[in-house]
Amino acid sequence: MAWAGREEEETREQEEGMMKRGRGGGARRGRPGRVGACYADERSWESLQEDESGLLRPIDTKTFQHAQYRRRLLLRTAAAAGDSGSAAPRIQRGLIRYLYVVIDFSRAASETDYRPSRMAVVAKCVEGFVREFFDQNPLSHIGLVAIKDGIAHRLTELGGSPESQIRALMGKLECSGDPSLQNALDLVHGFLTQVPSYGHREILILYSALTTCDPGNIMETIENCKKAKIRCSVVGLSAEIYICKHLCAETGGSYTVALDEAHFKELLQEHAPPSPAIAEYAVANLIKMGFPQRGAETIIAICSCHKEPKVGGGYTCPQCFARVCELPTECNICGLTLVSSPHLARSYHHLFPVLPFNEASVAPLNSYQKSPRTCFSCQQDLLNYGSKSSLHVSCPKCNQYFCLDCDIYIHESLHNCPGCESRRESILS
Amino acid sequence: MASSVSSKLYSDDVSLVVVLLDVNPFFWAGVNANSGTNQPAAALSFSKFLSHVLPFVSSILLINPLNQVVVIATGVKSCGYIYDSGGGSDGTSVSDLRAGFLRRLEEFVERDRQLCRDGERAAATTSSLLSGSLSLALCYIQRVFRSGILHPQPRILCLQGSPDGPDQYVAVMNAIFSAQRSVVPIDSCVVGIRHSAFLQQASHITGGIYLKPQQLDALFQYLSVVFAADLQSRSFLQLPKSAGVDFRASCFCHKKPIDRGYVCSVCLSIFCKNPQEMLYISDFKQASADSRSKSDSKRKTLEAS
C-alpha cells in the first residue's frame, strides 16, 4: 500500500525541474577541466550585497545569524511557557531518554542532490548527532535501525557509548529497495516497550523517500505507538509527506523537512537537547545509582568489561567492587547503574536555564554617559560594533550589557550569565 | 597585536593565560589569624602572595613576546578585569605591569568592599565568586577564538584560596563543561587550607593541572615550574600527576558524600535513602502552576541547603 499522493509526485517533479534549471552545467561534475561547473555550483554572486552607495560588499551575516538565533530561543521559551501555563522558563524535560534513530537506506537515499549522496550526508550528520546527544544527555541510550528493501533491521541495541554506535553505522553504507515506515515503527515499538518506565521513549526517523510500502494498516501502528507513549519525530529530506505529519502530530513529536545539507544538520542537532516532556509520559521514579571512585594510577585489577588485567585508572563499583573502565555504564556483575556526579551535572543546566536577554540598541550619540562602552563579559567595544547603531543585549536580572556573540555563547554553550554569577545578594556565613 | 605580526612568528607555543586571582578579603584576613596553629604550611599574607604572582605574570610575558596574560579578580561580591597585557587601545608594556596592575587591583578591592553592606558578618569560610570569574574568562577566550585564524592557545589558571561554595556547584560545572567543549584547560593552584573538590574536577575534566603547594613561601617556584610552560611543551615535562579525584556526589538532603544513592528520574536530585516525599518534585509541580517567585525561593533553599 503506497502512500504517495499525487501532490507529492508533482512536487518532486517540480523540484527536479527547478534543480536542473538552476544548476545549469553544475550537474555534470565529473569534468575537471570545466571552469563553469564550480562557478555555477558555488553561486558566489549570491553572497554579495549592495550597500547604500551602490558599492558591493559581502553580506553581513552576523546580525542575520543573531536574529535567527533569537527567534529560535524565543520560540523555545514561548513553547515552554505555553506548555506549563505560566511565565516560568523552567519546564520539565525528559532527561533520561531512550532514543532509536531510524535511518532510511532505500533507493531514494542514493540521490545525489545532497553531495556526495543523501546516505553519506545522513551518516555523517548522525555521527555528529550521536556525539552531541551523549554530551547533552549522558544518562540516555541510543539505538540504530536501518530500513531498506521493505524490511527494518536493528543495527545496534540501545547503548550508552557513542563509539560502538558510530562504528556499527559506518560499517555498511549501502542502499536499495523501498522503505517501510510501518515495519520500522513496529520493530522499534517492540524494543521500546521493554525499557524502564521512568525513561522517555523516542524515535527519530530520517526519511529520504517519498513513499512507504507497508504490509498492514499503518494507522494501527501509529495508535500502538501513541498508547505506548513513544514520541516520534521525523526529519525529511525530500518533501513533506502526510503520513509523517500525521505520525508526529499523533505522538507529540516534531516534523521538519530539510532544505539543504546545512539545514539538515541544524534540524538534526535540534533533537539533541531534551525536549519539553509531557508529564504523564514517564513515571517519576527513584533510580538506584552508584558513584564509584576513580582508582589510583598504580592499582592493578581485572576489568569486568574486557576480562583482562588493567593497570591504573578505572572505577570500582561500590556494590560488588568490580572494576569498570568507563562511566556511565551498568556494572556487568551486579547490574547497578554507575555514574559520576559530573554526568548528572551535565543535565542541570536544563533545569536552571539562563533567561533570554533583552535587546537594547542605543543610538551612539545620545546618552553617551549612560550607555555601556564595553561588553561586560568579553570587554569588546560595543560602540564601534556594527555599521549604524550598536546592537547589544542586556540581562533582565543583573542589567549588565553583553555583545551579540557573548549572547549566543552564553545561551548555547555556557548556560551561566556572567553578570548574575559575578554578583551576590548577601553573604551567608 | 596578532594582525600586525607575520604568520611565520606565530608558532604553536604562543599562549594566552587568563589568571583568576582570589581576592576574598575574608580568606586573606583569616590566613593571618590562623598562622601559628597546626597548619602544615606557613600562612601567606596577601602582599607576599602578590609578590609571587607579579613576577610569574612577567615571566610568562617574557617567555614569548606574543604571549598574552589577562588577570581577573575573584572578589566576594563581584568579579572584574584587572589587567590585560594585550592592552586594547593602550599597549601596556611589561614595565607598566606593576603600576597599572596594583592600582586597578586596589580600585577593585575597594569597590568590592563598598558592595558589602554594613553589618554583614562573614567567616573565613566565605567563598569567593569562582563561577563568575570562570564565566568571564570563558567569554573572553571565545572572543579570542573569534579574532581570526592566528590566535594564541588559551588556558585558565585559578589561584584560589577560598573554600568552595556549594551554591555555585551548578554554575561551576556548567563552566567546566563549556571549557571542555572549547578545549580550554583549567589549571588550579590552591593556596588555601583544604583541597578544592571543584577545582580538582575542573582540572581532571578539562585536562589541566591541579596543584596544592606544600611550601607556600616558594610559591613563585611552583608557579614558574608547573604553570608557565605552554600547552605544547607540557608533553615533554614531568608535571604533578593528579593524586585522585573525588567524583562522589553529595546527597541533596544531608550534603554528605555518598557512593550509592537514589536519583530522581525527572530532576536528577540525589538522595541517600529513599525519601518519603521528594522535595523538589512536589514543589516543582506546584511551582509550575503557582507564581515564579515561589519556585525561585525554593530553588535557592535547595541550592543553599
UniProtKB/TrEMBL annotation, chain A:
Cross-referenced CDD domains: vWA_transcription_factor_IIH_type (cd01453)
Location of region: Disordered: 1-35
Presence of keyword DNA repair: yes
Subcellular location(s) per record: Nucleus
Protein name, entry field: General transcription factor IIH subunit
Taxonomic source organism: Spirodela intermedia
Residue stretches making up the VWFA domain: 98-238
Pfam name, any one: C1_4
Example GO molecular function: zinc ion binding
Family statement drawn from the similarity comment of this UniProt entry: Belongs to the GTF2H2 family.
From TrEMBL, chain B:
Pfam families, alphabetized: Tfb4
GO cellular component, one term: transcription factor TFIIH core complex
Localisation: Nucleus
Chief site of localization: nucleus
Keywords: DNA damage, DNA repair, Metal-binding, Nucleus, Transcription, Transcription regulation, Zinc, Zinc-finger
Record carries keyword Zinc-finger: yes
Gene Ontology MF terms: zinc ion binding
The keyword Nucleotidyltransferase appears for this protein: no
GO biological processes: nucleotide-excision repair; regulation of DNA-templated transcription
The protein's role, per its UniProt record: Component of the general transcription and DNA repair factor IIH (TFIIH) core complex, which is involved in general and transcription-coupled nucleotide excision repair (NER) of damaged DNA and, when complexed to CAK, in RNA transcription by RNA polymerase II. In NER, TFIIH acts by opening DNA around the lesion to allow the excision of the damaged oligonucleotide and its replacement by a new DNA fragment. In transcription, TFIIH has an essential role in transcription initiation.
Quaternary structure annotation from Swiss-Prot or TrEMBL: Component of the 7-subunit TFIIH core complex composed of XPB, XPD, TFB1/GTF2H1, GTF2H2/P44, TFB4/GTF2H3, TFB2/GTF2H4 and TFB5/GTF2H5, which is active in NER. The core complex associates with the 3-subunit CDK-activating kinase (CAK) module composed of CYCH1/cyclin H1, CDKD and MAT1/At4g30820 to form the 10-subunit holoenzyme (holo-TFIIH) active in transcription.
PANTHER family xrefs: GENERAL TRANSCRIPTION FACTOR IIH SUBUNIT 3, TRANSCRIPTION INITIATION FACTOR IIH TFIIH , POLYPEPTIDE 3-RELATED
Family classification: Belongs to the TFB4 family.
Full protein name: General transcription and DNA repair factor IIH subunit TFB4
Organism lineage: Eukaryota, Viridiplantae, Streptophyta, Embryophyta, Tracheophyta
